[in-house]
UniProtKB/TrEMBL annotation:
Classification lineage: Bacteria, Pseudomonadati, Ignavibacteriota, Ignavibacteria, Ignavibacteriales
Name used for this protein in its record: Putative aminopeptidase
Record Gene3D superfamilies: 3.50.30.30, Zn peptidases
InterPro entries found in the cross-reference section: M28_fam, Peptidase_M28
Ranges in coiled-coil conformation: none
Length: 549
């Protein structure tokens, strides 16, 4: 027994003084129980070829769901009160657009048939997508209405019953008070543009990939696959992404050409105007219906006043499944995106469950499905929350984990919108690491809108994802940056994001411990995270509270 307490004292003395002076032995025992080899054990199964890339509606994702639920049961997490099990079942529809679909562009002189995959793809598809007669087009700049920036692309045009055309970018800005300067805002998100258009009565949307994609071959990589949507999200509105090489066609004979539009963008002089061309669309589709699951485990809080408030810790466990072969490998294992993230989620659930004195607030652990297909699992949860969203204090999402064990900085993606910035800063100080912003090279890839934390923000729940920064004790900033670039260029969303790459279990363990500390203090804090007064998500929070959603 003496040896045990001496070892525990040694653990405490090796932790930062600012931590152990504020917490207790129970925290340290759980903290030190987090092990990199445990994370890798989960990872080696979840990212194995046996699970075939965990594509939606497949045997592989069902195996992954069962594995996670078994772990939640082992840890003694409570089941969802709405289902009496760990599963939130979600009905999906999968739709594949066939080459026999008919998309016609009508100019003053001719009718032109566009070719599916070569000239366009559908963002959303299904039997309801149908425009039988030639329909007018209106160019609406970036397709943005942003009252907080006093910006409205729809102010001078009527789009009711028409198809709108917009660029995939947003206004160029060096002013942090106008579209956040060089940082990407939610308004560059294609789904946000689409919703704005539909709210104004548009019959459909055509997006021109002006900046988001470096070439049509990258678009093909993203869109040449089955479109999967929530079964209740039937679309009757055309939603197209069109090849920029033929974008000039739809500006034919109009007041301004596509080249003029590019000049408008560069000169900060964007205009909206009606187009002379019209389009029609008659789709052909192959469809299937299936059910997949979010996995939800609950650790009830113990404080009489705070236990009915909730912290959600999440990670998505789906990936791309089996796809086009690259060097004879067709399994898109998704090891770092995001089998490792859900492996960390499992380890966090075990560590929190091991606490003798559980946190004051209730913690909900959720492994989401459908993230790769448009955050569908988290959207379904926020549409059908197990516990009220207005009582959910925050979401800490995990999508990727540290590459290098000697990292000395972290990035709180989304922390700038809320007081979670303060919580992360306090955690970082306890470990003597710094906070840095998203490197400019990765603004788009690591945008706040790119994973499930955005879903929670959009319904008013303060949220954050914590990534590894570029500062490192043993590697230069350039070395770390180059490693990230190589991952995104060579392995991300390819069959090479598999178990053959080096996974640093020490880095994973250290990152997980930092997340444990952040979540532990959030779950025990009397103060809830708050949106900042200029946050675009504040109104959603106030609405949620008013409606008691």
């Amino acid at each position: 027994m003496k040896i045990y307490f001496l070892k525990l004292l040694l653990i405490i003395l090796t932790l930062p003084h600012s931590i152990y002076s504020q917490t207790n032995i129970d925290f340290y025992k759980a903290f030190e129980s987090i092990k990199g080899d445990s994370i890798l054990k989960h990872l080696k199964y979840l990212a194995s070829d046996e699970l075939e890339g965990r594509g939606l509606g497949t045997k592989g994702i069902r195996l992954a769901a069962n594995y996670i639920s078994v772990k939640f049961r082992e840890f003694g997490l409570k089941e969802s009160p709405s289902t009496n099990n760990y599963f939130q079942e979600i009905p999906f529809i999968g739709s594949t657009t066939l080459n026999s679909s008919e998309f016609n562009v009508y100019t003053n002189e001719q009718n032109i048939s566009l070719r599916y995959s070569e000239d366009y793809f559908l963002y959303k598809s299904g039997q309801q997508t149908f425009i039988p007669v030639p329909t007018e087009l209106v160019f609406v700049g970036y397709g943005i209405v942003a009252p907080e920036f006093d910006y409205n692309d729809y102010q001078s045009v009527d789009v009711t019953g028409k198809v709108v055309v917009f660029l995939d970018s947003e206004p160029i800005s060096d002013d942090p008070d106008f579209f956040n300067g060089r940082e990407i805002t939610q308004y560059s998100f294609a789904e946000v543009k689409r919703q704005i258009a539909l709210q104004r009565g548009a019959a459909g949307t055509i997006l021109i990939p002006f900046e988001r994609y470096s070439g049509w071959e990258i678009v093909i990589k993203d869109f040449a696959k089955e479109d999967i949507r929530l079964a209740y999200d039937l679309t009757s509105n055309l939603s197209v992404i069109i090849n920029p090489a033929i974008a000039k066609l739809i500006f034919d004979d109009s007041q301004y050409s596509f080249d003029d539009v590019i000049q408008m963008h560069q000169k900060h002089q964007m205009k909206s105007f009606p187009l002379k061309t019209k389009i029609s669309f008659r789709g052909s589709f192959k469809e299937r219906a299936f059910v997949d699951k979010n996995i939800i485990g609950i650790l009830p809080g113990i404080d009489d006043k705070l236990k009915d408030s909730y912290l959600i810790i999440s990670a998505h466990y789906d990936h791309l499944g089996i796809g086009s072969p690259v060097e004879n490998d067709s399994i898109y294992n998704g090891t770092l995106d995001n089998a490792i993230g859900v492996s960390v989620l499992i380890e966090l659930a075990r560590a929190f469950s091991s606490l003798n004195k559980k946190p004051k607030r209730t913690i909900i652990f959720i492994a989401f499905t459908g993230e790769e297909n448009g955050l569908l699992g988290s959207i379904y949860y926020t549409d059908n929350p197990v516990f009220p969203l207005h009582k959910t204090i925050a979401n800490v999402n995990i999508d990727g984990i540290a590459f290098f064990r000697d990292f000395e900085s972290v990035i709180g993606v989304g922390s700038e919108y809320s007081s979670l910035e303060n919580n992360l800063t306090e955690t970082a100080e306890r470990y003597q690491i710094s906070i840095e912003k998203i490197p400019e090279e990765f603004q788009e890839l690591t945008s706040f809108t790119n994973s499930d934390q955005y879903t929670f923000a959009s319904v008013g729940v303060p949220s954050i994802i914590v990534l590894e920064g570029l500062q490192n004790r043993t590697k230069s900033r350039e070395e770390v940056l180059q490693s990230f670039i190589e991952y995104f260029e060579l392995r991300y969303h390819t069959p090479f994001d598999d178990l053959n790459q080096f996974i640093d279990e020490v880095a994973a363990e250290r990152h997980t411990k930092i997340l444990f500390d952040l979540c532990y203090h959030l779950a025990n804090s009397v103060d809830e995270p708050k949106w900042k007064s200029d946050s675009p998500y504040l109104k959603a929070r106030l609405r949620s509270i008013a409606e008691k959603k």
